[in-house]
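Key idea: predict the complex, not the pieces.
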Amino acid sequence: MSSDDIWILGISMTKFGKHPDLDKVDLAAQATLAALADGGVTMRDIGVVAAGTLMGMGEPIGQMVQKQVGQTGVPVYNVTNACATGATALRTVIMAIKAGEADMGLAVGVEKLAGAGLLAGGSRKEAGDTWQPRGRYGAVAPVDGRIGTEIMPGVFAQIGMEYGHRHGGTSFELFARISEKNHAHSTLNPLAAYTKRLTLAEIMDDVMIAYPNTRPMCSANCDGAAAAVLVSGAKLRTLSIEQQRRAVKVAASVLTSDPWEEGCQVLPNVNTLTRNAATQAYEQAGLGPEDLDLVELHDCFATAELVHYDNLMLCEQGGAVDFFESGAPWRDGRLPVNVSGGLQSKGHPIAATGIANVWEVCHHLRGEAGDRQIADAKVGLAHVIGLGSACGVHILERAAA
Amino acid sequence: MAEQIPLVDYLVLGDEPHLSAHECTTCGARFFDRRNACAACGATGFTTAAIATRGEVTAFTIVAFAAPGIPVPFVAAVVDCDGTSVRANLVNVDPDPDHVRLGMPVRLTTFPIGADATGTEAIGFGFEPAA
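Result:
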C-alpha cells in the first residue's frame, strides 16, 4: 500500500428505521463506537473529526458525539451539504489526512427523520393584507404551487421526465419497475428501514405523490447514523495484518458542485455535476465503469436512479433505459445497482446516507455481506447528490491481499 | 378597472403580457431573479430581455401531494421558450398523463390570483396548450 493512499479502517451503520427511544446523539454515538470497534481503534487514535446532521439547525453534532464517546480535544468540523452531507464529512477527513494534518480520522453522519413528511415546499406563507413584492423574484405571494413545485418528489419527477423527453423510452411503468428492483433488493438487508418486496402493481397503485413518483418510489424518511474511520496508508502499515486485510482502499474521493448551465435556474441540473464527479473519480482511481462490481447511487426517487445510470457512465450516453431493460442493475445482473435496497427502501436519514452507501460497498468488498453478498466484489462506487447542488463520488477497492 | 400587480417582477403585464429576464451583457446568460453578478461569467452588467411567449414542454410532473394550503393536483413543468427554460404551471389542461405530454406546444397565459385589501389584483401566469 502506498503511503499516499487513504483507507477505510472501520465503518458502520445503525439499523435505519424508527428509533423512538434513541436521540440523534445516541444514534451517532452508536455508529461511531461500532466504527471504532470495527477498525480496532479508539477515540485516542483519532486526529480529526468531521460530522454532519442536516436538520440540526447548526448544532455542533461532532462535539455532541465526542461528549458521549471521548473528548480528546482534536479538531471537529461540522459540515452540511444537503443530501451530500455524509459524503462531505468523509471527504473532509480524507482531505485532512491527505494534507498530513492527521493520520487517522472519524466521519459521522446522523439524522432523525422518521415520520417527517415532505421535506420542502411551502417555503413562504401567505402574509399581510396588501401585495408586497419580496425576495429576488419580487413575488407578491407564495410561488410554490403557482409557479411550478418546490417539493422534492416533483423536482426529481421532472428530472426523470426531462431524460425521457431527451432520449425517449421512459414511462410511469418503467420508473415503477426501477423501484420494484430496489424494494426486492432490500429484502436481503437486515439494516434497511423497509424490507418488503412490493409488486409492480402495488407500487403503481400506491398513493401518487408527484407523477410519476408514487409513495414507494420516494426515498423513505427514517432515523439512522453511519460512521467511518479513515487512515493513511503509512499509518495502516503499522497496524495488524488483520486490520490491513479488512481495510478498504479509497481509490477516489471527489466532491463537485454544479457549473452554470442554461436551465439550471429553473430545474436543478443533477446530471452535469454527477458526470463531472464520476469522470474525475474514474481518473483518480485509474479505473472505469467496466471495472465496477457494484454501485450504490442516489435513488432519492425512482426517476433519479434512471438518470444516474447515464451520469455515472454505467451505460452509453442516452442508454439508461436500455441499461435497465437489460437487467444489468438487478443484483444478479451485469452491474448490480443499489443492492442495499437504496434510499427508497433502505431509507434516507439524510446526513447518514453518504457514509452508509460507502459502508454497503465496503461490506461487499470485505466479503461480509452475508445473504446479499455480490460474489468476489473487488471495486465499487458510492454516489450522492445534495440539491443546491453537491455531488460526492467515492470509488472503493478491496485490499490486494 | 382595478389596479394590477404581477405575481413576480419578471412577469410584464399590459397589452402583450410576457416574461422578461435579466440578460448578462457579456455572455448572454439569462436569469429570472435578481443577480449580483452573472453565474456563468461573473460580469456585473445586465440588460432586460423579453422571453418568447410560446414554447415546448420539456419536463413535467403532476403534483398530487403538496404543502398545506396548496391546491392539488396541478401540473408543474419546464417550458423551453425559444432557448430559454421557464418554470411554470401548465393550466387549462386536465392534470393527468393522458392530457399532458412531453414535447407539447404551449403558450403563455395570465390570470388573476386574488385581490388584496386595497382592491389591487395580483396576476399570475401559466402555460396552456397551443394548437
